[in-house]
């Protein structure tokens, strides 16, 4: 099936729009090689009505469409409303698509087997390695670029890696390693742990420790995390040198299919040539699109603030928004999250709501159904934020409303490559439309924006280039986690996506609310806040389609189940697994209560 762009537009207050949008987002997550999703959110029924006529002008059919939502394909083919779109999703991606979606195929004998596609490269038949300065040049020194460069060099290729960090609009800059190491996963997890440490100290007296908890020292945390990140930056340079990779701290752009222009920090320009080029530039945060939006910082700046952020407004409902808001609340700062519609789009919505509920119980405030209209400086140097229903003054405003691929200055037009509306490049198994140019990681259309995915893509591509490996990266059933106070870990399909794909009658969900043992002694901990559920396909031996866990250390627990889902674990397999007692992970092995029973599924005892 050729790759299609699926668009769903509607009034954000419309439940039918939210349902269709969730399904559309799930399609892109499940079928990154087949679907690009565009969600168009209009803030009110009036705004949707005003937008609709112009949209209908470019569609074949649908002239009489008036309701929310509207769905269409490739900016031209009308699908219809919510029910029409769900039927389209089932027809085009359901039924026989169970194998690719859920991590396995079923052979004629009924046994499950790993689905492996071929991604053998057929490139550069006309060019030879000796004609160029390098066998491979990689633009971008993040997770994917580093992995590809080291792997290729070990396989005998002559490799150069270009990496140059353009400072954020607020002047923040960092070293080698990309978003994850410098302004993403690593500092985020350390700040998350710092907030949890505060929680542990509140528990300590009930465990017999005489602990006095003072105010959090922001400056000390930032300094210690910076020092660790600097050690990682240095370590990557050492690794590249040891692997024989030429590291160039220069900004790279394409002149033609085999030539890269480099510019150093002094503005000196040079050119280098390569038989093959990998684009691995990742992305940068999207700015706020309103008057005064430049006053807001982004996640590029949060972890490098020299002084505490104070009263903070986080704009957005992505995992980045919720994770940052969570640790700021944990540090004791007055923190609010401005949410336009729903939390964690594309994730299981029951779990997303529970993440929000847990955050509220810990003190994070939510401003629902709102977007900032204007930001302005106050006389005392703070920021007043205006939205339709009110305004308030904050010390810091953090924009976490999505990311744009960092491709605008790459010279893609020089080689005939185009990008989508967020700057992402189309690539099939990392191969672009130009035979000598490849793309990996967050700058690729439909790709999961996860560091381990970029790393595996980089290693895999290098092996396909230089030792003839043919199989692509297996992107099915990849575990992930949201580190927001109570962590949310998941792997496989959301309950929403499973029901939309197979129908309500085909799905069962086993679930329970529970209390971790370590929460039973502290008097301030609320019981049965943690929750887990397992989504199964009833008519296929109750094969597990998805697993979801809201608890401390959920990310650590859910990681191990990724391989189980890939190879067709059934609910009986899970039940027969003997757990480690007493742990959170054991809760997944003890599930018995089906959601369809209507019982509350609150666990008692151990």
Automatic annotation (TrEMBL):
GO biological process: cell redox homeostasis; cellular response to oxidative stress; glutathione metabolic process
GO cellular component, one term: cytosol
Domain FAD/NAD(P)-binding: 134-456
Residue ranges constituting the Pyridine nucleotide-disulphide oxidoreductase dimerisation domain according to the UniProt record: 478-588
Disulfide bond in keyword set: yes
Keywords: Disulfide bond, FAD, Flavoprotein, NADP, Oxidoreductase, Redox-active center
Coiled-coil annotated spans: none
Cofactor: FAD
Enzyme class (EC, first level): oxidoreductase
Source domain of life: Eukaryota
EC number: 1.8.1.9
Molecular-function GO terms, alphabetical: flavin adenine dinucleotide binding; glutathione-disulfide reductase (NADPH) activity; thioredoxin-disulfide reductase (NADPH) activity
Pfam families per UniProt: Pyr_redox_2, Pyr_redox_dim
Cited InterPro entries: FAD/NAD-bd_sf, FAD/NAD-binding_dom, FAD/NAD-linked_Rdtase_dimer_sf, GSHR/TRXR-like, Pyr_nucl-diS_OxRdtase_dimer, Pyr_OxRdtase_I_AS, Thioredoxin/glutathione_Rdtase
Keyword flag NADP: yes
Family: Belongs to the class-I pyridine nucleotide-disulfide oxidoreductase family.
Record function comment: Catalyzes the transfer of electrons from NADPH to thioredoxins TRX1, TRX2 and TRX3, which in turn act as reductants of disulfide containing proteins. Able to reduce nitroglutathione (GSNO), a compound involved in the transport of nitric oxide (NO); however, TRX1 is more efficient in reducing GSNO. Has no catalytic activity towards oxidized glutathione (GSSG).
This protein's name: Thioredoxin reductase
Native source species: Hondaea fermentalgiana
